Amino acid sequence: MAKKGVLLVNLGTPDSPSTADVRKYLNEFLMDGRVIDVNPALRTVLVKGIIVPFRAPKSAKLYQAIWDKETGSPLLHYSLLQQAALQQRLGDGYVVELAMRYQSPSIEAALQRLKDALISDIQVIPLFPQYASASTGSVQEKVMYLVKDWQTIPTISFLNSFHDNELMIETFADNAQRHNPDSYDHILFSFHGLPQRQLKKCDHTHSYCLQADGCCDALNDTNKLCYSAQSHDTARLIAAKMNLPGEKYTVCFQSRLGSDPWVQPYTSEVIAQLAKDGKKRLLVFCPAFVSDCLETVFEVTHEYGDEFKALGGEHVQLVESLNAEPKWIEALAGMVS
Protein backbone atom coordinates (compact mmCIF):
# COMPACT_ATOMS: atom_id res chain seq x y z
CA MET A 1 0.00 0.00 0.00
CA ALA A 2 1.15 3.53 -0.73
CA LYS A 3 2.47 5.44 2.24
CA LYS A 4 1.08 8.74 3.43
CA GLY A 5 3.31 11.80 3.63
CA VAL A 6 3.57 14.29 6.48
CA LEU A 7 5.52 17.51 6.05
CA LEU A 8 6.39 19.40 9.23
CA VAL A 9 7.50 22.97 8.52
CA ASN A 10 9.08 25.35 11.01
CA LEU A 11 10.24 28.91 10.42
CA GLY A 12 13.94 28.48 9.83
CA THR A 13 17.40 29.12 11.17
CA PRO A 14 20.82 30.13 9.81
CA ASP A 15 23.13 27.32 8.78
CA SER A 16 25.65 28.65 11.29
CA PRO A 17 25.92 31.62 13.67
CA SER A 18 28.37 33.38 11.36
CA THR A 19 27.44 36.85 10.12
CA ALA A 20 27.46 35.63 6.52
CA ASP A 21 24.98 32.80 7.20
CA VAL A 22 22.79 35.01 9.37
CA ARG A 23 22.76 37.62 6.59
CA LYS A 24 21.71 34.95 4.08
CA TYR A 25 18.92 33.76 6.36
CA LEU A 26 17.62 37.24 7.12
CA ASN A 27 17.60 38.17 3.44
CA GLU A 28 15.42 35.19 2.53
CA PHE A 29 13.17 35.62 5.57
CA LEU A 30 12.58 39.36 5.32
CA MET A 31 12.23 39.44 1.53
CA ASP A 32 9.12 37.25 1.85
CA GLY A 33 6.21 39.44 0.78
CA ARG A 34 4.03 38.00 3.53
CA VAL A 35 6.55 38.92 6.22
CA ILE A 36 7.22 42.50 5.16
CA ASP A 37 4.03 43.19 3.25
CA VAL A 38 4.91 46.42 1.48
CA ASN A 39 5.70 47.42 -2.10
CA PRO A 40 8.40 45.03 -3.43
CA ALA A 41 10.73 47.87 -4.40
CA LEU A 42 10.43 49.45 -0.96
CA ARG A 43 10.88 46.04 0.69
CA THR A 44 14.13 45.51 -1.24
CA VAL A 45 15.49 48.89 -0.15
CA LEU A 46 14.48 48.32 3.47
CA VAL A 47 15.76 44.75 3.74
CA LYS A 48 18.91 44.80 1.64
CA GLY A 49 19.87 48.42 2.20
CA ILE A 50 18.96 49.04 5.83
CA ILE A 51 17.72 46.15 7.97
CA VAL A 52 20.01 43.24 7.07
CA PRO A 53 23.33 45.16 6.88
CA PHE A 54 22.79 46.49 10.41
CA ARG A 55 20.91 43.55 11.91
CA ALA A 56 23.01 40.61 10.66
CA PRO A 57 26.14 41.27 12.79
CA LYS A 58 24.02 41.87 15.90
CA SER A 59 21.85 38.79 15.31
CA ALA A 60 24.95 36.68 14.66
CA LYS A 61 26.20 37.48 18.19
CA LEU A 62 22.84 36.42 19.62
CA TYR A 63 22.87 33.14 17.70
CA GLN A 64 26.42 32.51 18.88
CA ALA A 65 25.17 32.83 22.46
CA ILE A 66 22.60 30.02 22.05
CA TRP A 67 24.40 27.82 19.49
CA ASP A 68 25.36 24.40 20.83
CA LYS A 69 28.71 23.02 19.66
CA GLU A 70 27.24 19.56 19.08
CA THR A 71 23.56 20.11 18.19
CA GLY A 72 23.77 23.56 16.61
CA SER A 73 20.61 25.63 16.36
CA PRO A 74 18.08 24.85 19.12
CA LEU A 75 15.16 25.30 16.73
CA LEU A 76 16.58 22.83 14.20
CA HIS A 77 17.66 20.42 16.93
CA TYR A 78 14.21 20.19 18.51
CA SER A 79 12.48 20.12 15.12
CA LEU A 80 14.56 17.09 14.11
CA LEU A 81 13.67 15.39 17.38
CA GLN A 82 9.99 16.06 16.67
CA GLN A 83 10.31 14.60 13.18
CA ALA A 84 12.02 11.44 14.44
CA ALA A 85 9.59 10.95 17.32
CA LEU A 86 6.53 11.46 15.09
CA GLN A 87 7.92 9.04 12.49
CA GLN A 88 8.36 6.41 15.19
CA ARG A 89 4.89 7.10 16.57
CA LEU A 90 3.14 6.87 13.18
CA GLY A 91 5.04 3.83 11.93
CA ASP A 92 5.91 2.47 8.53
CA GLY A 93 2.68 3.59 6.88
CA TYR A 94 3.91 7.17 6.90
CA VAL A 95 6.89 9.15 5.67
CA VAL A 96 7.53 12.18 7.90
CA GLU A 97 9.71 14.93 6.47
CA LEU A 98 10.93 18.15 8.07
CA ALA A 99 11.51 21.45 6.31
CA MET A 100 12.20 25.05 7.17
CA ARG A 101 10.35 27.85 5.43
CA TYR A 102 13.68 29.65 5.13
CA GLN A 103 17.06 27.98 4.58
CA SER A 104 17.76 24.31 5.29
CA PRO A 105 16.31 21.73 5.12
CA SER A 106 14.27 23.30 2.34
CA ILE A 107 10.61 22.71 1.55
CA GLU A 108 11.53 21.95 -2.05
CA ALA A 109 13.91 19.13 -1.05
CA ALA A 110 11.44 17.69 1.46
CA LEU A 111 8.64 17.65 -1.11
CA GLN A 112 10.94 15.93 -3.60
CA ARG A 113 11.73 13.21 -1.05
CA LEU A 114 8.02 12.64 -0.48
CA LYS A 115 7.46 12.50 -4.22
CA ASP A 116 10.30 9.98 -4.64
CA ALA A 117 8.74 7.86 -1.87
CA LEU A 118 5.60 7.52 -4.03
CA ILE A 119 3.36 8.73 -1.25
CA SER A 120 -0.41 8.75 -1.81
CA ASP A 121 -1.08 12.12 -0.21
CA ILE A 122 0.66 14.86 1.77
CA GLN A 123 -0.47 16.53 4.96
CA VAL A 124 1.37 19.80 5.60
CA ILE A 125 1.64 20.88 9.24
CA PRO A 126 3.12 24.36 9.65
CA LEU A 127 4.49 24.32 13.19
CA PHE A 128 2.80 27.57 14.24
CA PRO A 129 -0.07 27.10 16.71
CA GLN A 130 -1.77 30.38 15.78
CA TYR A 131 -2.47 31.23 12.15
CA ALA A 132 -0.73 34.24 10.62
CA SER A 133 -0.25 35.14 6.99
CA ALA A 134 3.44 35.75 7.68
CA SER A 135 4.00 32.22 9.03
CA THR A 136 1.38 29.57 8.22
CA GLY A 137 0.15 31.46 5.16
CA SER A 138 3.69 31.76 3.82
CA VAL A 139 4.26 28.01 4.18
CA GLN A 140 1.01 27.24 2.37
CA GLU A 141 1.88 29.61 -0.45
CA LYS A 142 5.38 28.14 -0.85
CA VAL A 143 4.13 24.54 -0.99
CA MET A 144 1.46 25.39 -3.57
CA TYR A 145 4.00 27.28 -5.67
CA LEU A 146 6.42 24.35 -5.66
CA VAL A 147 3.88 21.65 -6.60
CA LYS A 148 2.12 23.65 -9.31
CA ASP A 149 4.45 22.25 -11.99
CA TRP A 150 4.20 18.62 -10.89
CA GLN A 151 2.53 16.55 -13.59
CA THR A 152 0.81 14.42 -10.96
CA ILE A 153 -0.23 16.32 -7.86
CA PRO A 154 -1.30 14.11 -4.93
CA THR A 155 -3.97 15.08 -2.48
CA ILE A 156 -2.49 17.81 -0.31
CA SER A 157 -4.04 19.10 2.90
CA PHE A 158 -2.93 21.93 5.16
CA LEU A 159 -3.40 22.38 8.87
CA ASN A 160 -4.51 25.97 9.41
CA SER A 161 -3.86 26.24 13.15
CA PHE A 162 -3.93 24.27 16.37
CA HIS A 163 -4.10 27.07 18.92
CA ASP A 164 -6.60 25.15 21.06
CA ASN A 165 -5.16 21.64 20.76
CA GLU A 166 -5.81 20.00 24.12
CA LEU A 167 -2.59 18.01 24.35
CA MET A 168 -0.54 21.06 23.35
CA ILE A 169 -2.25 23.08 26.09
CA GLU A 170 -1.58 20.31 28.62
CA THR A 171 2.09 20.13 27.64
CA PHE A 172 2.64 23.83 28.22
CA ALA A 173 0.83 23.60 31.56
CA ASP A 174 2.87 20.54 32.56
CA ASN A 175 6.13 22.31 31.67
CA ALA A 176 5.15 25.21 33.90
CA GLN A 177 4.72 22.92 36.89
CA ARG A 178 8.46 22.28 36.89
CA HIS A 179 8.94 25.85 38.09
CA ASN A 180 6.36 25.97 40.90
CA PRO A 181 4.13 28.64 39.31
CA ASP A 182 2.64 29.64 42.68
CA SER A 183 6.02 31.07 43.62
CA TYR A 184 5.81 33.78 40.94
CA ASP A 185 4.19 37.19 41.30
CA HIS A 186 2.82 37.28 37.76
CA ILE A 187 2.68 35.15 34.63
CA LEU A 188 3.16 36.39 31.07
CA PHE A 189 1.98 34.76 27.86
CA SER A 190 4.36 36.41 25.40
CA PHE A 191 3.56 35.76 21.74
CA HIS A 192 5.56 36.75 18.68
CA GLY A 193 4.46 40.14 17.41
CA LEU A 194 2.88 41.17 14.11
CA PRO A 195 2.23 44.58 12.56
CA GLN A 196 -1.32 45.74 13.20
CA ARG A 197 -1.80 46.21 9.46
CA GLN A 198 -1.46 42.44 8.98
CA LEU A 199 -4.25 41.81 11.46
CA LYS A 200 -6.45 44.29 9.63
CA LYS A 201 -5.76 42.64 6.27
CA CYS A 202 -7.12 39.38 7.67
CA ASP A 203 -10.39 41.04 8.73
CA HIS A 204 -12.62 40.20 5.78
CA THR A 205 -15.43 42.34 7.19
CA HIS A 206 -13.16 45.43 7.22
CA SER A 207 -15.13 46.66 10.21
CA TYR A 208 -14.09 44.60 13.25
CA CYS A 209 -10.32 44.40 13.74
CA LEU A 210 -8.93 46.90 16.27
CA GLN A 211 -12.17 48.87 16.24
CA ALA A 212 -12.73 48.40 19.97
CA ASP A 213 -10.66 47.58 23.03
CA GLY A 214 -10.66 43.87 23.80
CA CYS A 215 -11.77 42.80 20.32
CA CYS A 216 -9.37 39.83 20.55
CA ASP A 217 -10.14 38.80 24.10
CA ALA A 218 -12.59 36.05 23.04
CA LEU A 219 -13.02 34.03 19.86
CA ASN A 220 -16.14 34.56 17.75
CA ASP A 221 -17.21 33.94 14.16
CA THR A 222 -15.64 37.20 13.00
CA ASN A 223 -12.17 36.90 14.57
CA LYS A 224 -11.77 33.11 14.72
CA LEU A 225 -8.92 33.21 12.17
CA CYS A 226 -7.21 36.23 13.74
CA TYR A 227 -3.68 35.66 15.06
CA SER A 228 -4.20 37.87 18.08
CA ALA A 229 -7.57 36.32 18.96
CA GLN A 230 -6.15 32.82 18.64
CA SER A 231 -3.19 33.86 20.83
CA HIS A 232 -5.53 35.12 23.54
CA ASP A 233 -7.46 31.86 23.30
CA THR A 234 -4.29 29.78 23.74
CA ALA A 235 -3.35 31.80 26.81
CA ARG A 236 -6.86 31.50 28.24
CA LEU A 237 -6.85 27.72 27.82
CA ILE A 238 -3.42 27.29 29.44
CA ALA A 239 -4.48 29.58 32.29
CA ALA A 240 -7.68 27.57 32.76
CA LYS A 241 -5.68 24.33 32.85
CA MET A 242 -3.53 25.87 35.60
CA ASN A 243 -6.50 27.42 37.44
CA LEU A 244 -5.03 30.91 37.05
CA PRO A 245 -7.35 33.84 37.77
CA GLY A 246 -7.46 36.63 35.19
CA GLU A 247 -5.56 39.09 37.35
CA LYS A 248 -2.63 36.67 37.68
CA TYR A 249 -1.57 36.73 34.02
CA THR A 250 -1.13 39.06 31.03
CA VAL A 251 -1.09 38.40 27.28
CA CYS A 252 1.58 40.40 25.44
CA PHE A 253 3.63 40.43 22.22
CA GLN A 254 7.37 40.58 21.57
CA SER A 255 9.94 41.01 18.76
CA ARG A 256 8.56 44.05 16.95
CA LEU A 257 10.48 45.64 14.08
CA GLY A 258 10.25 49.15 12.64
CA SER A 259 8.16 52.17 13.62
CA ASP A 260 4.69 50.99 12.54
CA PRO A 261 2.36 49.95 15.39
CA TRP A 262 2.40 46.23 16.18
CA VAL A 263 0.03 44.08 18.18
CA GLN A 264 -0.12 45.34 21.75
CA PRO A 265 0.61 45.34 24.61
CA TYR A 266 4.33 45.01 24.04
CA THR A 267 6.12 42.55 26.32
CA SER A 268 8.86 45.04 27.20
CA GLU A 269 6.29 47.63 28.33
CA VAL A 270 4.35 45.07 30.36
CA ILE A 271 7.54 43.99 32.12
CA ALA A 272 8.39 47.62 32.91
CA GLN A 273 4.93 48.21 34.41
CA LEU A 274 5.10 45.01 36.47
CA ALA A 275 8.46 46.11 37.87
CA LYS A 276 6.96 49.51 38.68
CA ASP A 277 4.13 47.73 40.49
CA GLY A 278 6.64 45.95 42.68
CA LYS A 279 6.52 42.49 41.08
CA LYS A 280 9.75 40.58 41.63
CA ARG A 281 9.37 37.20 39.93
CA LEU A 282 7.86 36.55 36.50
CA LEU A 283 7.07 33.26 34.78
CA VAL A 284 6.92 33.57 30.99
CA PHE A 285 5.27 31.31 28.41
CA CYS A 286 5.98 31.70 24.67
CA PRO A 287 3.09 29.69 23.17
CA ALA A 288 3.64 30.86 19.58
CA PHE A 289 6.66 28.56 19.39
CA VAL A 290 6.69 24.75 19.48
CA SER A 291 10.50 24.63 19.76
CA ASP A 292 12.81 26.72 21.87
CA CYS A 293 14.72 29.18 19.72
CA LEU A 294 16.32 32.62 19.70
CA GLU A 295 13.05 34.34 20.66
CA THR A 296 12.60 32.16 23.73
CA VAL A 297 16.04 31.13 24.93
CA PHE A 298 17.71 34.52 24.43
CA GLU A 299 15.05 37.20 24.12
CA VAL A 300 13.04 36.18 27.16
CA THR A 301 15.72 34.72 29.42
CA HIS A 302 18.46 37.27 28.75
CA GLU A 303 17.04 40.45 27.22
CA TYR A 304 13.80 40.66 29.20
CA GLY A 305 15.48 39.16 32.24
CA ASP A 306 18.15 41.87 32.22
CA GLU A 307 15.56 44.60 31.62
CA PHE A 308 13.46 43.40 34.53
CA LYS A 309 16.41 43.27 36.92
CA ALA A 310 17.53 46.74 35.87
CA LEU A 311 14.06 47.99 36.85
CA GLY A 312 14.16 46.36 40.28
CA GLY A 313 12.85 42.88 39.51
CA GLU A 314 14.61 39.72 40.62
CA HIS A 315 13.96 36.87 38.17
CA VAL A 316 12.36 36.05 34.81
CA GLN A 317 11.82 32.33 34.23
CA LEU A 318 11.04 30.90 30.79
CA VAL A 319 8.63 27.98 30.58
CA GLU A 320 10.24 25.52 28.18
CA SER A 321 8.55 25.09 24.82
CA LEU A 322 6.97 21.84 23.60
CA ASN A 323 10.23 20.58 22.09
CA ALA A 324 10.12 16.75 22.07
CA GLU A 325 7.78 16.19 25.02
CA PRO A 326 5.90 12.87 24.53
CA LYS A 327 2.48 14.48 24.99
CA TRP A 328 3.30 17.00 22.25
CA ILE A 329 4.30 14.18 19.90
CA GLU A 330 0.93 12.59 20.65
CA ALA A 331 -0.69 15.91 19.76
CA LEU A 332 1.08 15.91 16.38
CA ALA A 333 0.05 12.31 15.75
CA GLY A 334 -3.53 13.28 16.48
CA MET A 335 -3.34 16.10 13.97
CA VAL A 336 -2.20 13.64 11.32
CA SER A 337 -4.87 11.05 11.97
UniProtKB/TrEMBL annotation:
Binding site for Fe(2+): 192, 295
Name of protein: Ferrochelatase
Xref: SUPFAM superfamilies: Chelatase
One GO BP annotation of this record: heme biosynthetic process
Role: Catalyzes the ferrous insertion into protoporphyrin IX.
Species, as recorded: Mucilaginibacter terrigena
GO molecular function, one term: metal ion binding
PANTHER family linked: FERROCHELATASE (PTHR11108), FERROCHELATASE, MITOCHONDRIAL (PTHR11108:SF1)
Reaction(s) catalysed by this chain's protein: Fe-coproporphyrin III + 2 H(+) = coproporphyrin III + Fe(2+); heme b + 2 H(+) = protoporphyrin IX + Fe(2+)
